[in-house]
Amino acid sequence: DKDGHKHFMAKEIAEQPTAINRALAAYLDQNNQITLPEELDFTKVERLTLVACGTGYYACLAAKYWFEQIARMPVEVDVASEFRYREPPISAGTLAVFVSQSGETADTLAALRYCAGKAQQIAGLVNVPESSIARESDVVLPIHAGPEISVASTKAFTCQLVILLLMALKAAAQRGQPLPADLPEDLRSLPGLLHQVIAGEEQVTAVSRELAKAQDIIFLGRGHLYPLALEGALKLKELSYIHAEGYASGELKHGPIALIDETVPVVVIAPSDALFDKTVSNMQEVMARGGKVILVTDAKGAELASEGVAETLVLPHVNSVLTPILYAVPAQQIAYFTAIAKGTDVDQPRNLAKSVTVE
Ligand code: M6R
Asked: Where is each SIS domain found (predicted)?
């Protein structure tokens, strides 16, 4: 049941505030104490290994920034299909975390089995609690997104991010690291902010009609928004069949800038945070070569850097730690409305399956 929406994807984008509230209810008590399963003891963990496929992998990449910066822990992130055949040495103090919406992805399950008996502990972040990955994990963290039907992952991604962030905050607290200002309290404001962005979807529809004419689209982001550039590009190619690539903004001049001309739109994901000026200077390099920039930022960013930009999507201000979660919504909306403009099958893109249970 699409609940009055045209597609399951639209319904699932709209459900994100509720889904995140459910995840917070499960893992954050009324006094803002993080209530993860007790077996998760980060004081005993020497390093983290995060493994997943597709969108889950990008959630892990964003979490790497959080675990390193907030909890000061060494973190390795890998796609499951590479990890399993590389046979990496797993040190005894490793917490291995497997992130999977379905809990049935063949490569992720094989990677988990490789770690069994080698890692100190195996944690599974799944949306389907009775899945194989859940069954074979020492600790299971259901993400509480609710059933996700559309092939393109949306609410599972934002719920994965919320729980990975709670894990990083818990790890910081247990390891005597200071928590970032106003966290975890500010997580409470996220559902309302997501709701605002979802309600403001019409600012994306005009942008998407333009994007639908392009052959190639580039997404740029820096710091913990770099994984979101990758996710934005994946979502767009998956749904609209337009070739899209995500890059770390600083990598632009190491190759991709050769692609830029007036036919290549560049989506720049840049809230006004500590790295804003750096990303803006990359954006100006794009504009100097005729590239059409779509800037995704907040009101302050728009005021500082909209000059010469083709379109600006303005999001509400949010604690900078939380930007990967809030900025996931415009990335989803861009893919969704571009697919609508192209007339592709949004919920069932060609060649794709919801759950990849074979290699
Ligand atoms: O069920 P999983 O989270 O293990 O699935 C992993 C990927 O197959 C999945 O995220 C895929 O990339 C999505 N179609 C992305 O929208």
From this structure: 36-178, 207-349
pLDDT band at 359, cuts 50/70/90? confident
For the cut 90, the answer to whether the pLDDT of residue 51 exceeds it is: yes
Q: Which two tokens stand for residue 263?
A: 């036919």
CA distances from 308 to 29, 103, 287, 288, 292 (A): 46, 45, 7, 10, 9
Structure tokens at 283: 């954006």
Q: Where are the beta strands (DSSP E) in the chain?
A: 47-52, 75-79, 94-100, 121-126, 139-142, 216-221, 243-248, 265-269, 292-298, 311-315
Tokens of 23: 């995840």
- Give CA 106 to chain center in angstroms: 21
Task: Fill in the amino acid letter for 173.
Answer: A
Q: 160 CB under 6 A from ligand 1?
A: no
Does 2 qualify as catalytic in the annotation?
no
Tokens for 335, please give them: 């893919």
Asked whether the predicted pLDDT for residue 255 surpasses 90, the reply is yes
The distance from CA 71 to its chain's CA centroid, rounded to whole angstroms, is 19
Looking at the CA of residue 352, tell me the nearest atom of ligand 1. 14
132 lines ligand 1 (CB under 6 A): no
Ligand 1: does its nearest atom lie under 6 Å from the Cβ of 151?
Answer: yes
Q: Which ligand 1 atom is the nearest neighbour of the CA of 108?
A: 4
pLDDT tens digit string along 288-314? 999 999 999 999 999 999 999 999 999
- In this predicted structure, the answer to whether residue 5 has a pLDDT above a threshold of 90 is yes
